[in-house]
Amino acid sequence: MRKYDGIPELLDQFMAEQDADVRWVTVQELRDCFGLTRYQCNTVSGFLRRLEFGSFGRFPYRVLRIEQVAGCHPSDPQKCRYLVKRKAMVAAAVPGIHYHTGVQVRGKADSGGSG
Q1: Is residue 64 within 8 Å of 85, Cβ to Cβ?
Q2: Which end of the chain is more exposed for a tag (fewer CB within 10 A), N or C?
Q3: What is the pTM of this model?
Q4: 3-class DSSP state for residue 52?
Q5: What residue spans define the domains of the chain?
Q6: pLDDT number for residue 38
Q7: What single DSSP character describes residue 111?
Q8: Could you give the CA distance from residue 61 to residue 105 in angstroms, rounded to a whole number?
Q9: What does the buried/exposed string (b/e) look like for 86-108 if buried means 16 or more CB atoms within 10 Å of the residue's CB?
Q10: 70 neighbors 22 (Cβ within 8 angstroms)
Q11: b/e per residue 51-65 (b: at least 16 CB within 10 A)
Q12: Residue 80, phi then psi, degrees to nearest 5
């Protein structure tokens, strides 16, 4: 996580401000929104590309698709846009741990009969 220090939080904040679970995002939008440097933008791009191939720890977003977008002029560098989607966060069951569901279950020993 050290390599992407602060980047997941920025993307999470951006998506929350846009009030979107799925949205096309460009690095330029993030740069404009948060005043990022060019070096930070390279890191953001790398982070978004990593999200295309799998989740990043407990980070709630995933990149479903990356598309290249042509610049306005032939000399402009190609840019990418990233389809970012919030994934469903489900707690994984841990073997040997019983989770409380709020439903009381009584076994035979608790049936209330006198012994």
Answers
A1: yes
A2: C
A3: 0.69
A4: helix
A5: 2-86
A6: 87
A7: S
A8: 37
A9: eeeeeeeeeeeeeeeeeeeeeee
A10: no
A11: beeeebeebbbbbee
A12: -120, 150
Mean pLDDT of the chain: 79
Residue 61 near residue 47 (C-beta atoms within 8 A): no
**Given 3-state DSSP classes, what are the helix, strand and coil percentages for the chain, each rounded to the nearest 5?**
35, 20, 45
Q: Residue 81: what residue type?
A: R
**Could you give the CA distance from residue 93 to residue 10 in angstroms, rounded to a whole number?**
29
Architecture of domain 2-86: 2-Layer Sandwich (3.30)
Task: Collapse the DSSP code of 56 into the 3-class scheme (helix H, G, I; strand E, B; otherwise coil) and give the result.
Answer: coil
Kindly state the tokens that stand for 76: 């402009």
- Length of the chain measured in residues: 115
| pLDDT tens digits, one per residue of 48-85 | 999 988 766 778 899 999 999 887 887 877 789 999 99
